[in-house]
Structure formats: C-alpha cells, structure tokens
Task: inverse folding
C-alpha cells in the first residue's frame, strides 16, 4: 500500500495516470503539480503513516477508489455555494474544501443547514489552513487541479458518483461530551459572542469564562440528538467583552462547555471504528493536534490532514470526520 | 423497507422529539436539530407537514444507508 504522504514527483505520476485525488499540503508544493483530476487545500499538518507530523515537503494523498463511476470537479463562489448539496450525485458523495477566514467559510458555516437539500446528499470535507507561525502573513488556499486555479475564496468540490453496489456514509468521532455545567444560549447566530443567556439569565460570556477560569481548550458542545457538535474557542477579547469562536453558535441551540478529557489518544482510539467498512477519507482538527500533542503519535489506523475546520454536512470543530463505503 | 407516507404519525413524532432517542444517522440528527428551533416557535400543522415532507425525503434519499434503515425501524416500532 502506498504511503499517504508523498513527494511532488511520486504524486505527479499518479495525477498523470488519471487518478482522482483529494490532496492537502503546502501551497508551494501544490503549485508544482500537473493538472489533472484533483482538488486540494493548503495545510502542513497531518496524521501520516507514522503519526502526527508537520511538513512542507510532502503532500497528503487520498485516492478516490477505482470503483467510482465518475468524478466531476466544480468551483463554487459565494453566489453558487448554496447549490452544493443539490449538485451532488443522487448515488454518491461530494467532497469540499474551503479556505479558512474567507467569506465562503463564513457563509458556509452560518448558512449550510439552510441550503436546499441539506443533509440529503453526503457532503464531507475540510477547511484549508496555513502553518500557525504564518497566521496573518499568508492566507489559506484551495486548488482546482483540473485548471490549476488557486483560490483564496470560494470552494472546490469533487462530486463523486458511485455504482449501486456502494453506499457512502459520513460519520464523526468527537471525544468531547457536554460537561455538567451551565447551559449557554446565544441571542443571535455568529462566530463572535457578547452577551448570552446562561441558565436563562443574561450575562457576558467573556466575563463568565474569565471569572470561572474556564479552560478555553474545551469547546462549547451542543447535543444534536446524540451527535455532539463543538464550537471551539478561538480567543477572548476581555476589553470588548467578546468571545471569538472557530465555528458559529446558533440561536435556539443549548450549549455546555465540554467535560475535560484526560488522554486524547486513548479516548480517540477507544472510539475508532472497528467494522470492516472501508474508510474513504478522514480528517481531524488542528486543535486536537495541538492540544493533545499528536505530533509523532498515531491515532489508530486513521490518517488525514489536520484542519482549520471539518465538514460533515456542516462545519464542525475539534472533531474527526470520516467517510465509509458500505457494500450492498 | 417501505418508507411511510408523509401523513404517517411517525414523522411528527420524530420532529417533536418524541421518538428521537437513540438515533444513529448523522443526516437525520442534523436535520432534526436544524428544524427544532423553528418548531419551538411554531408547531402549526402547516409547518409540521412541511418538515415532515423534508424529513421523509431525507429518509428516501438515504434509504440505502444502514444506520438510516435502523433508525426507521426503531422509529416505527
């Protein structure tokens, strides 16, 4: 089996051989690749074959299985993004990459659950990022390999059709659970939050988190009928009384801060899928990589880019998402 | 397995949270969570029927997915 992390030369052979590829890597490397049936996002952090690694010399490769019947690349802008679910094949899945900090990122995060056809067709993917030492100096990008176009905004999508014998399913693995603390509800949808309702009482969230010395590595968690959905804390602006998140919080949803997790790797590997289904793609969050110190550590047999946001139908934080293929 | 018509009470029961315990399928959980705030404000028959139609379509679209099949079986028990 080929390694998931490859150099430009080796990867170029696969591209020129006509393989359908989902790529993640440093912008400098992605710009060197030949045109072909691939899409990519920028990031230098991965779980590779040997465990967590930060590298600008290799590209993470997910080969779309040979059994697919077609793979069509499409680029979306802020006007067309709302069609992304309906454009997906009725028998298949769609793979999306969006650059972090872009308007498309914001638009997708806030509005995807209201796009036509939401959740009716599998959409999986991730938010492209950059080396954390370059925050504010360079920007995340996505690449349409068919044209070589490099984008700072918009989304690249590969719509993949499957034969009737294969059924895709998107799953998530989130080691965080709601803690036993207060219930938090926001007054409006958004990434930045001032006053909220805490157990029904209006309070400033920034003051609340600071006064209680809350661990900001622990996300706020919403219970979506048993699926735990995180919103990770980016920063607290104490002077302005604003908490900034990596994903939007939504009105009408009740959040609680996550319960502490002792050993991330142990908790993660305990929950890994053990079925015989084939994992077609997976990615995990850069915050899990950082906070759980995953560099050099393996997370079972799972590999993939470490991202600035994960997409399983909608934007998620601090969560592994993965795609399975069932034989029917 | 045949998916019940949109007038079947199972859809309203799912939408109002009466049958939502133990769901496995991610798209179903996400859909129900999306419509929950709207239904908390307005539980009119018209809105329930609109969401029931969408929910049924979701089950039809994902009818081959094993976890969706199991969710439907559980909901109908």
Result:
């Amino acid at each position: 089996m080929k390694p998931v992390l490859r150099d430009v030369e080796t990867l170029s052979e696969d591209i020129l051989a006509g393989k359908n590829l989902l790529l993640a890597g440093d912008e400098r490397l992605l710009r060197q690749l030949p045109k072909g049936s691939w899409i990519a996002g920028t990031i230098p952090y991965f779980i590779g074959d040997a465990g967590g690694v930060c590298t600008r010399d290799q590209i993470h490769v997910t080969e779309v299985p040979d059994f697919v019947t077609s793979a069509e690349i499409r680029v979306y802008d802020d006007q067309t993004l709302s069609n992304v679910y309906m454009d997906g094949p009725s028998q298949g899945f769609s793979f999306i990459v969006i650059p972090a900090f872009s308007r498309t990122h914001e638009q997708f995060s806030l509005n995807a659950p209201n796009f036509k056809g939401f959740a009716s067709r599998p959409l999986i993917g991730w938010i492209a990022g950059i080396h954390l030492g370059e925050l504010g100096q360079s920007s995340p990008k996505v690449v349409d390999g068919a044209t070589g176009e490099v984008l700072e905004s918009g989304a690249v999508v590969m719509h993949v059709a499957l034969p009737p014998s294969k059924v895709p399913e998107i799953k998530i693995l989130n080691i965080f659970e709601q803690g036993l603390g207060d219930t938090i509800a926001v007054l409006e949808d958004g990434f930045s939050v001032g006053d909220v309702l805490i157990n029904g009482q209006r309070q400033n969230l920034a003051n609340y988190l600071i006064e209680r010395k809350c661990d900001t590595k622990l996300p706020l968690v919403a219970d979506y009928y048993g699926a735990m959905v995180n919103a990770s804390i980016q920063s607290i602006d104490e002077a302005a009384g604003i908490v900034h998140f990596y994903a939007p919080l939504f009105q009408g949803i009740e959040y609680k801060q996550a319960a502490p997790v002792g050993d991330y790797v142990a908790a993660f590997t305990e929950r890994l899928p053990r079925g015989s289904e084939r994992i077609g793609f997976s990615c995990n969050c850069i915050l899990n990589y950082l906070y759980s110190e995953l560099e050099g550590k393996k997370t079972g047999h799972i590999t993939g880019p470490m991202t600035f946001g994960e997409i399983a139908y909608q934007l998620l934080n601090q969560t592994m998402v993965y795609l399975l293929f069932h034989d029917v | 397995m045949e998916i019940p018509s949109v007038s079947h009470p199972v859809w309203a029961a799912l939408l109002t949270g009466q049958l939502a315990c133990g769901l496995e399928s991610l798209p179903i959980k996400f859909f129900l969570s999306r419509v929950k705030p709207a239904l908390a404000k307005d539980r009119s028959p018209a809105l329930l029927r609109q969401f029931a139609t969408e929910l049924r379509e979701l089950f039809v679209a994902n009818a081959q997915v094993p976890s969706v099949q199991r969710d439907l079986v559980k909901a109908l028990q």
The mean pLDDT of chain A is 94. The two ends of chain A are 25 Å apart (CA to CA).
